[in-house]
Write a structure and sequence with these properties.
Elements (H helix, E strand, L loop, with lengths): L17 E7 L7 H20 L8 E7 L4 H14 L3 E4 L3 H14 L3 E3 L15 E3 L4 H14 L4 E6 L3 H15 L4 E6 L5 H10 L4 E5 L6 H9 L8 E3 L8 H7 L8 E3 L7 H14 L5 H20 L3 H6 L6 E3 L2 E3 L1 E2 L7 E3 L5 E6 L2 E10 L1
Parallel strand pairs: 1-2, 1-3, 3-4, 4-5, 5-14, 6-7, 6-8, 8-9
Antiparallel strand pairs: 10-15, 11-12, 13-14, 15-16
Helix pairs in contact: 1-9, 1-10, 2-3, 4-5, 6-7
Length: about 375
């Protein structure tokens, strides 16, 4: 079922508003917490745009749709939003879903600013209709590989489920590690259970295990199994896709969920805008915002700037990606053509490798920056 527009931002529906379609995972199997943070950022920025006079005096309206991490559902949703007259699309977290949304947006001639999905091949062919804020997977995961190598890890096991996203990640890691004498050992989680993973880690003499699997399961069960196996007391567990950032991770794993490095797209210190937005997001969410919330805020900030200049003309919005120069919460946002990336890309948002501090699980430690 489609989610109705959020009451916080859909105050006018009489046809005078400028409308943006917001694609957000708000139900399972989507990563619901990430979706809630993304929506919080989108909504906060929309409210601030409207408090400042809207788009040429017209209110900005988010038309929110729950993607539920379903590529087929999102393709149908993009068609529906295009028919209702949205000026542009925003959002999405899951790469496979964002890819389906990008394909439809490109086919329909509908501008799409992807907030948080990282898959390099967001579209099959280069397109002028799609731009992206999140760093491409090849960029972020290379930084993660540098972190592993710098920490002395050369034999890396990956517990992986079938997915274009995980397969892409494995390829990036394997290329980076092979160039410096490292090895990636793939553990197929279709065939193995968490106890089997422990035996495979010992047999392959791996020094690190990366979780390229869904959250909460089987990720949580794998962590518990490895943590309780005395043979693996020295192994590093990592989760480049960011599962340990969510509060559910801490609730389900407690101390077992600490010291598991993941990627986060924030600077070491937020500037004045970022700090102000962080405080507002914290109040809205009732806790610390993830980087996904900042991506949501920055998405609307960019689109509002384009809408003020070009109105709701879709072609003019898409043609203006190369001329964007907007101060976001994490730095100045500009879009360019990046080799190997099929969409207009912000190159690059700041990248960190962080983990939860074993001494204080609610605090994050910055281990490496790129």
């Amino acid at each position: 079922m489609n989610t109705p527009p959020s009451p916080a931002v859909a105050e006018r529906t009489d046809g005078t508003s400028v409308r943006i379609g917001a694609l957000v995972p708000l139900s399972r199997p989507g990563w619901v917490e990430a979706g809630q943070h993304l929506l919080a950022g989108l909504e906060l920025a929309t409210r601030e745009v409207n408090d400042a006079g809207g788009i040429g005096g017209r209110p900005l309206e988010l038309v929110v749709r729950d993607t539920a991490a379903d590529p087929q559902r999102v393709a149908e949703t993009v068609d529906e939003l295009a028919r209702t007259g949205v000026a542009a699309l925003a959002g999405e977290y899951h790469s496979v879903v964002a890819r389906a949304a990008a394909a439809r947006a490109d086919a329909l001639g509908l501008p799409f600013l992807c907030s948080s999905a990282v898959l390099d091949a967001l579209t099959d062919q280069p397109t002028e209709w799609v731009a992206r804020l999140a760093p491409a997977q090849s960029h972020g995961w290379r930084i993660y590989a540098d972190f592993l190598l710098g920490a002395g890890h050369r034999r890396i096991a990956v517990a992986a489920q079938p997915s274009v996203y995980w397969t892409s990640g494995i390829r990036i890691l394997r290329d980076c590690l092979a160039a410096r004498g490292g090895t990636v050992i793939e553990l197929d989680m279709v065939e193995l259970d968490p106890a089997d993973v422990c035996d495979q880690l010992v047999e392959n003499r791996a020094t690190a295990l990366l979780l390229l699997v869904g959250h909460p399961e089987p990720a949580v069960s794998i962590v518990k199994s490895v943590r309780r196996d005395q043979r693996l007391a020295e192994i590093l567990i990592g989760a480049p896709a960011g599962q340990p950032e969510c509060t559910e991770w801490e609730k389900l794993l407690g101390d077992d969920g600490t010291a598991i490095p993941f990627l986060r797209y924030l600077p070491e210190r937020l500037g004045p805008l970022g700090a102000r937005v962080e405080a507002a997001l914290r109040e809205r969410l009732g806790g610390a915002p993830s980087f996904v919330a900042f991506e949501g805020y920055d998405t609307v900030t960019v689109l509002a700037d384009l809408l003020r200049s070009h109105g709701a003309d879709r072609a003019r919005i898409a043609a203006s990606w190369p001329r964007v120069a907007v101060e976001g919460t994490r730095g100045q946002i500009r879009f360019s053509r990046t080799p190997g990336i099929s969409v207009r890309q912000w190159a690059w948002a700041p990248v960190q490798v962080v983990d939860r501090d074993p001494a204080e699980p609610g605090r994050f430690r910055i281990l490496h920056t790129g």
